[in-house]
Amino acid sequence: MSSPIPFLDGVLTADEVATTAATIVGMQEADGAIPWTVGDKVDVWNHVEAAMALQVAGEVEASHRAYDWCLAMQRPDGTWPIKVVEGVVADDGAETNMSAYLAVGVWHHWLIREDLGFVRRMWPAVLSSLDWVVSMQLPWGGIAWRRREDGVVDAEALLTGSSSTYHALKAGLAVAELMESPQPEWEIAASRLRHAIRRHRDLFLDKSTFSMDWYYPVLGGAVRGAEAEEMIAAKWDNFVRPGLGIVCVDTNPWVTGAETCELAMALDAMGDHARARALVQDMQHLRHENGSYWTGWVYDNEVYWPHEQTTYTAAAVILAVDALGRVTPGSDIMRGATLPADFAPMALRCGCEPAAERLGQPV
Fold first, then answer.
1. What is the dihedral of CA 187, 82, 156, 136, to 10 degrees?
2. CB count, 10 Å around CB of 213?
3. In a domain, 228, yes or no
4. Handedness of CA 250, 252, 256, 258 (dihedral sign)
5. Residues in Cβ contact with 238 at an 8 Å cutoff, skipping those fewer than 6 apart
6. Are strands 144-147 and 41-42 parallel, antiparallel or unpaired?
7. For residue 128, what is the domain's CATH number?
8. d(Cα 301, Cα 304) in Å, to the nearest integer?
9. Which Gene3D superfamilies does this UniProt record tie to the protein (predicted)?
10. In sequence order, what are the beta bridge partners of 255?
11. Neighbours of 51 (CB within 10 A)
12. Quick check: is 360 in a domain?
């Protein structure tokens, strides 16, 4: 199916984007699941990201089958399994950022199609998933990252996961407003989470060698403005490899396409369009001749690794091109102009004085 996306400053043509979307559809399983690659695992976060990319590219039927899978696989408590392989649950635990992400996909779908019937159908799943996520909030504001298969909760928070969850809570609140169903508990949780991401990053698990922990507070919307610019500038040279993209971990010579495109969307949300576009252009060396994308490139050895093309990398490319090209109404999903305003701190339990922080300003 042809894509609505035009040329983006010589980066990708409409036909090239359509070809990339077709490679995602080609790996979709009969039940609608979108694995990382053929025969690999499915997790609901990357699955929803792929469904969003398919909407952008005009692959509407395949996208809807993916959302049907979300409804079929959701458990009564609002969660999804961490890992499903070819229809079989391989990890029966639950991760908070994964379960939260359906809200982002539903809001994105509304922006593109304004299909109220679809939103109504998905709303119970969004409601139960975010209720569970909010129940996993820690006293200082971060979100516990996982409930293991044995039912034990890992009561530690990941900065990347919590930043994505903040984005999902805002998307969920936008959907709730559309459904005329206020969710004040989500607002309180989002305000506490934003404060934690901005003021208590030392309390999250230390994953500072990973590029996602560097840019995700910006991508998820908790950090913007001058603080975001300072955050990105501080580790630019740690993670960016000019002409190639960004590394996944700053200790390894491995640039990855999905992280590069996510950083591009974070920069776009900051208004840094030139560097965002350059990054998407730089990572095109990962494009396979069939339109899919290699996961990454080990530049010291000059080899693709792992030796596979992943749906989540292709999806990230499509979403980044849409964001930079302002093609569909869904292109705003990371910039967040269509989402609720950021939340001032309220009901804090971390010991901070709420009045000490002004929205968008340093303490």
1. 30
2. 20
3. yes
4. negative
5. 214, 250
6. unpaired
7. 1.50.10.10
8. 9
9. 1.50.10.10
10. 247, 297
11. 30
12. no
Residue located via tokens 């820690």: 138
Domain that holds residue 311: 14-347
Number of domains in the chain: 1
Q: Is the peptide bond preceding residue 306 cis, with omega within 30 degrees of 0?
A: yes
State which amino acid sits at residue 55.
Q
Please report whether residue 1 resides in a domain.
Answer: no
Q: What three-state secondary structure class fits 143?
A: strand
Residue pair 186/130 in contact by the 8 Å Cβ criterion: yes
- Decide if 276 is inside a domain: yes
CA distance 184 to 347: 12
Could you give the CA distance from residue 22 to residue 323 in angstroms, rounded to a whole number?
20
What is the pTM (predicted TM-score) of this model? 0.95
Comparing CA positions, the residue from 232, 258, 235, 234 lying closest to residue 245 is 258
- What is the distance between the alpha carbons of residues 49 and 248, in angstroms, rounded to a whole number? 19
Sign of CA pseudo-dihedral 321, 49, 217, 250: negative
CA atoms within 13 A on the CB side of 145: 11
208's tokens: 């500072």
